[in-house]
Automatic annotation (TrEMBL):
Keywords: ATP-binding, Nucleotide-binding, Transport. This is Iron complex transport system ATP-binding protein. It comes from the Bacteria. GO terms for cellular component: membrane. PROSITE patterns: ABC_TRANSPORTER_2.
């Protein structure tokens, strides 16, 4: 005879410990899956970013990099799995309180900045989590920080220019300055060098190198398609392929010919000279 179903009896899951991220983790994914239709665009990803680390995320088109960053930015929830961001757990925190603690630069966000917004306003509005100036008043301190960032990112002469008139490289720098406006504890940069010419890319790599070497800078995650864009000073890499983590660990052990070939499904030869990487077909 089978025991009668006891609706009051807690399920085994009720006895499981609630997820608590590691103490030194600024971002922790545990078995994270994102399902869209019949496809898992992220499939059981485990990944931990600790304070002070600077991560590169690489993988082929459609591997799930931007989806991963949207989750890390608390702008998307996984279908299953757990996510710790800073000292909070996604699903048990007011994301509107969490988001100002995370700096995000992405193409998606760039599309939300109005063409007529000035550079200065595109940066300062991040303090209210907005992408456009409305009727809000800013403290002197906010204005000083915005001006400081605008100047630090080489945009001083453009402070009053409209966002819509900027070159791709200038826009990218505005978005990074904006991402830093709230003095975030976690910085997420989704393809910041996409669309830049060679000089623009090199200037950006130099600025990101300086940021990586700044001990006061937040833990950083940089999504890129090209190993040439990896700034010296970055410490770790995560390789994604078809939604799964193929490799994750210290940069030099992860950005290897073998690992990159596996992630991209094609034979690649990776070389490193003076802290910079190149990759060509093997
Ligand atoms: N809402 C959705 N419904 C169905 N599929 C989706 C949805 N959003 C994303 N995808 C798919 O999920 C996969 C991962 O997308 P994602 O943008 O995260 O990849 P990516 O690694 O950033 O790609 P890329 O390098 O091309 O920017 C892609 O195949 C994409 O088509």
């Amino acid at each position: 005879m089978t025991a009668p179903h006891d609706a009051a009896r807690p399920s085994p899951a009720a006895f499981e410990e609630p997820f608590t991220p590691d103490e030194d983790a600024v971002l922790q994914l545990h078995g994270v899956t994102v399902r869209r239709g019949a496809k898992d665009i992220l499939a059981g990803v485990d990944w931990t970013v600790r304070a002070g680390e600077r991560w590169i995320v690489m993988g082929p088109n459609g591997a799930g990099k931007s989806t991963l960053l949207q989750i890390a930015a608390s702008r998307m929830f996984p279908t299953s799995g757990e996510v710790g961001i800073l000292d909070e757990v996604l699903g048990a925190v007011d994301v509107f309180e969490l988001r100002p603690r995370i700096g995000l630069s992405s193409a998606l966000l760039a599309n939300q900045v109005r063409e007529e917004e000035t550079v200065q306003d595109a940066v300062i509005t991040a303090s209210y989590g907005m992408t456009g100036r409305w009727r809000e008043e800013y403290e002197l301190e906010d204005r000083a920080r915005a001006l400081g960032l605008v100047s630090e990112w080489g945009l001083a002469r453009l402070a009053h220019r409209r966002f819509g008139t900027l070159s791709e490289g200038e826009r990218k720098r505005v978005l990074i300055a904006r991402a830093l406006m709230t003095d975030p504890e976690l910085l997420l940069l989704d393809e910041p060098a996409a669309g830049l010419d060679l000089a623009g890319r090199e200037a950006l790599v130099a600025q990101l190198t300086a940021l990586a070497e700044d001990e006061a800078a937040p833990a950083t995650v940089l999504v890129t398609h090209h190993v040439e864009e990896v700034p010296p000073g970055f410490t770790h890499a995560l390789l994604l392929s078809e939604g799964a983590a193929v490799a994750a660990g210290p940069l030099e052990e992860t950005l290897t010919s073998e690992r990159l070939s596996e992630a991209f499904g094609t034979a690649l030869k990776v070389t490193r000279a003076d802290g910079r990487y190149t990759a060509v077909a093997a």
